[in-house]
Amino acid sequence: MTTAIEIKNVSKWFGDFKALDDVSLTTSQGEKVVICGPSGSGKSTLVRCINRLEIHQKGTIKVRGIELTDHDSSVSEIRSEVGMVFQQFNLFPHLTVLQNLTLGPTKALGLSQKDANERAFKLLERVRIPEQANKKPGHLSGGQQQRVAIARSLCMEPKIMLFDEPTSALDPEMISEVLDVIVDLANEGMTMVVVTHEMGFARKVADRMVFMDEGKIIEMGKPKDFFDSPKTERCKLFLNQILQH
Amino acid sequence: MKKHFLILVFLLIFLSGCSSQPGAWGWYVIDPTTKGGYNNVMFLLSGFSATIQLSLLAAFFSIILGLVVALPGMSSNYWVRLPSRTYIEFIRAVPLLPMMFWIFYGLPVILKSMGLNIPIDPFWGAVVTLAISDSAFTAEIYRAGIQSIHKGQREAAQTIGLTSFQTMRYVILPQAIKRILPPLANQFIYIVKMSAFASVIGMQELMRRANEVVVSEYRPLEVYTFLIFEYLILVLIISQAVRWLERKMGSDESRG
Known about the structure:
The complex is a heterodimer of chains A (about 240) and B (about 260).
Chain A: E1 3-14, E2 17-28, E3 32-36, H1 43-50, E4 58-63, E5 66-67, H2 72-79, E6 82-85, H3 97-107, H4 113-126, H5 142-154, E7 160-164, H6 172-187, E8 191-195, H7 199-205, E9 208-213, E10 216-221, H8 223-228, H9 233-243
Parallel strand pairs in A: 3-8, 3-9, 6-7, 7-8
Antiparallel strand pairs in A: 1-2, 1-4, 4-5, 9-10
Helix pairs in contact in A: 3-4, 3-5, 4-5, 5-6
Chain B: H1 2-19, H2 35-45, H3 47-73, H4 78-93, H5 96-113, H6 122-147, H7 151-159, H8 164-194, H9 206-217, H10 220-253
Helix pairs in contact in B: 2-9, 3-4, 3-6, 3-8, 3-9, 4-6, 5-6, 6-8, 7-8, 8-10, 9-10
C-alpha cells in the first residue's frame, strides 16, 4: 500500500510548552485514522502540522512523498492535495455558499466560473444542501455550515482530508448529519485523519485509532482492540470517562 | 441630530446675549443686507470649495498611502515590517505645521538639487502634507480592521490553496472593510479641520479667507465666529454621513 502521510519524530513547542513530543505516525492511502485524547494533548496541533498551519520544529513530515519544508512551493503543493475541515467551520461570511465553494477552484486551480459552479453543485448535492447555494453562511444552521465547509474542501479535489474536531462546535442534534457525510466520504475510500470525541463514529469508520496525551502518542491500534482492551492505564481511564454517558 | 440642534440653539442664545451689550459685537462686517457685509460673506463662503477639494484629495491619497503602508506592517517578517512601523512612528510624531513648511519651502530645494524642477504650489503642498500626515493614522485603522478578522478565515483560505495576496484580496479585505470604513470616514473630519493649516502657505481656503477679512476689517470676533460655524456645518454633514454609513454596515453584518 502506498504511504499517504509520513510523520517522523516530530516535536513542536509553543514557547516553553511542548505541544508535540517526538511523534511518529505513518498512514497509507485510503486509510482512516481517528485521533482522540484529552484537550491539550496535541491532537489538533498534529493535524494542523500536516498542512503547515503550524510549523513543526523537529522531525520530518512527508505528504504523498513531498516533504514539508520552508519552501513555499512544497507547502502549496501539499495544500493542493490536503483538504481541511475546522471545528469552527471558518466559512467566509461575506460570500454565498456557492461562492465559498467556488473561490478556491476559480482562484487557485484556475477553473472557469461555470465549471466551478458545476463542481460545486455536485458537491452540495452530495452533502445534501443544494437548495442553500445562494444563502450566506450566517443564515444556515451549524450542521449545514459544517457540511458546506466539507463541500468547500472537497471542491479542491483533495487526496487526503483532515478533520479537526468537526462536530465539537455543533448542537447535539446536528452532529449526526455531519458525521453521516463524513462516513459517506470514508466509504468512498477517502484517506483521512479525524480528530474527534465521537467514539461511535470512530468505531464505524476508523481503520486505526490513535490515543494522544501530553504531546505523545500513547496508544495506537485497531478500533476493536483499542476499545475492548486498551493496553495503557491512561487510555483506559480516558475511554471510561468519555464512554460513561 | 437632536444633540447637534441643541448645541446650535445654545450657541445662538449665547451670541444674541452678547450682542445686546453695545460695542462687544459688530455683526455689520458680515451683514449680508449691506454691500460691504455681503461682499465679506461671499468672500468667506467662497473658501468652502478649496477646503473641500483639499480635504477630499488629501483623504483620497491618505487612504491609498495608508493601505500601502499598512500591508507590509503586518508581515511576519521583521525586515518587511520595519520600514512600515518606522514610517508610522515617525510621521505620527511630526506636527502638521512644521511638516507643511518643510514640504512647501524645503522639498523644492531638495528636488532642485536633484535636477528636478517641480514647483510646489500651496494647493498641492497642502494636499501632500495632509495626506502624508494622515496616512500614518489610516494605516493604523487598516491594521486594526484587518487584524480583527478571525485567524480561522486566513487559515481556511490557505487550505483551499489561495496565495496570501488572494487571501487578502478575496477573504480578508472584503470583511475588514466594514470595520475600516466608519473610522476612516471619521478620520476625514480630522483632515477637514487640519486643512486650516494650509492657510499659512497661502492656500485660499476657509481659514485664509477669514484671516484676510479680519486684517481688512479689524473684526476678529465676528469673522472667526462665522468661520467656526463654517467648519461646524461641514463637520456636521460629514458626521451624519458617517453615522448613516455605520448603520448601513452594521445592518449588513447582522448575521455573520
